[in-house]
Amino acid sequence: MELLRVLVVGILISWVLRVGGEEVMASQPGDIPAIYNFGDSNSDTGGIAAAFFPMAAPCGETFFGRPVGRASDGRLIIDFIAEHLKLPYLSPYLDSIGTKFQQGANFATGGATIRRQNESWFQNGVSPFPLDIQIEHYDQFKARTSYLYNQAKEPSDRSNLPNPEDFSKAIYIFDIGQNDLAVGFRTMSDEQLQAAIPDIVNQFAAAVQQLYKKGARAFWIHNTGPIGCLPVTTVNIHNPTPGYLDEHGCVKGQNDIAIEFNRQLKGRVTKLRAELPQAALTYVDIYSAKYGLISNAKNQGFEEAFKICCGHHENGISIWCGQKGNINGREVYGDSCANPSKVISWDGVHFSESANLWIANQIMNGSLSDPPIPITKASSYTKHM
Q: Hey, what's the signal peptide range on this chain (predicted)?
């Protein structure tokens, strides 16, 4: 089990904004022709559900009215990003039914890690589609769709295929790494996990480099969130020792490791800018957005930060969202709460639609990005050559 609308509309006359020694050309939503997404369940729009078991109700109840492969009651951050860029929601690459890939594809799968793991999906929720496999899926997707597009004799034959020219103009989004830490907490000491972080980060960089060699140029990279604040972790903590939890009730040691992972990830992104001279790499501080919401929940219109909307967790026994179980001879159903819009955590691991929207609005305007540019301009700035 594993523990992505602020929109200013106007007519912009050609102008140039200087950001960190780089040129940023004016851009509007709609200028980015496609999104290609890589990640885990935080941005999976149905990949793991298509590969294995479909999501069960009440997932999807708030927006879609039915389960649609998302680990939430509605839309994810990636859905709000697509809306903001005036693009359709991303179809999962692994789904063969009703998919449309003309303006992008989603290679993310729930449980995915950057590094390959020995654990299995069926036992521990670790995806068999880690980042390197997702990149291979992209390579195959690009090669096959480009071939079919170029072989098509009628425009209708290309209706669901991406234009090969758009691959270099698309934005490539990453939201992955949380599960590498989650697996580490289960299988390693903190010291061992700390020692593994450089290799995890380097494997991430290798994926970006492979995409760059295939023509990708604009990268929007989310760091990992405050894993120590996930309610599934905190719900069964009783009488913690002093210092185990931080001032907001999160597991401090886990968040410290997430912060270190993010520090090294940001440093590696900086190195990639030098190694990939034609790339535009935007590092996005998703940690600060999520922690800011959790630490200030009530002032942002939410209930207590660690409340879980869907599922039942009691005395170390978990009945997950949409499942049935037995607690002390009593049948319990993992149903949803009365008002998911007031709850941050959907199921103890994943965020509710309302929380995802709040987070998306914090990151899309560029205020938490390095360089500090909005996502609408993320594919427009280039280094001086």
A: 1-21
